Amino acid sequence: MIIVVACLGLLACGIVKTTYKVTKGTVKAGYKVTKFAGKTVYTVGKFTIPVVLAPLTWPLTHADIESIDDLPPKDAIKQGRVKTSPYVVKGKRYVPMSVEKARNYKKKGIASWYGYETYRQRGGHMTANGEAFDPNGLNAAHKFLPLPTFVRVTNLDNKRQIILRVNDRGPFIDGRIIDLSAGAAKKLGFYEKGTARVIVETVNLDG
Fold first, then answer.
1. Which of 9, 69, 113, 155 is the most exposed place for a label (fewest CB within 10 A)?
2. pLDDT at 207
């Protein structure tokens, strides 16, 4: 299915076109959640993914996000209006897929990694859903999946697999379907190369 999104009422807005491949038999995984000291820890299979909310004073990892749900980004985050809300980056309006559609998402393409610049800056950074960005964590950015969504990413070159939490928006570079943290890129074996051919599949969590 091809989704074409046109921006209405924004003079500098462009058009975003993307393709969603939907298949049956999506990935399912058992998980558990532990909460302590202001941190929520998800254990999905053999992967442990801590989640911490970022202070609103922290800058976004993508400063180019102009609005979310027609609000200033941090206002939308504060009001919890992020999960599937449309957002604007450099004049282009992106519309994420629904939660139901995302349950069957599977796509092959190019992955990259991001966040190198945050290593050299003081303080932390906030993802597009208000979580603290961890460049060494198991997290990722996607333009169209609801925030947050868990995905399994398979490196097609070496067959390594990893489960990640999508909690940010991006990559905003043509030809790339997902941005991983540096830590995730290292685990998948493409940190030095910078990109890899991957399959991204939604993980539906079973209690």
1. 9
2. 54
The predicted structure's pLDDT at residue 15 = 36
CA atoms within 13 Å, Cβ hemisphere of 167: 26
> What secondary structure, in 3-state letters, does 143-207 show?
CCCCCCEEEEEEECCCCCEEEEEEEECCCCCCCEEEEEEHHHHHHHCCCCCCEEEEEEEEEEEEC
What would the two tokens of residue 91 be?
């004049």
Q: What is the H or E stretch that residue 73 is in?
A: helix 73-78
Scan for tokens 């074996």, then name that residue.
189
Report domain extents, the chain: 2-206
With a cut of 50, which residues of the chain have pLDDT below it?
A: 1-25
Question: φ and ψ at 134, to 5 degrees?
Answer: -115, 105
| Digit-coded pLDDT (tens) for 51-74 | 999 999 999 999 999 999 999 999
| pTM score, whole prediction | 0.85
Indicate the fold that domain 2-206 takes in CATH.
Answer: Barwin-like endoglucanases (2.40.40)
Q: Residue 19 corresponds to which tokens in the numbers above?
A: 């393709």
How much is the pLDDT for 121? 59
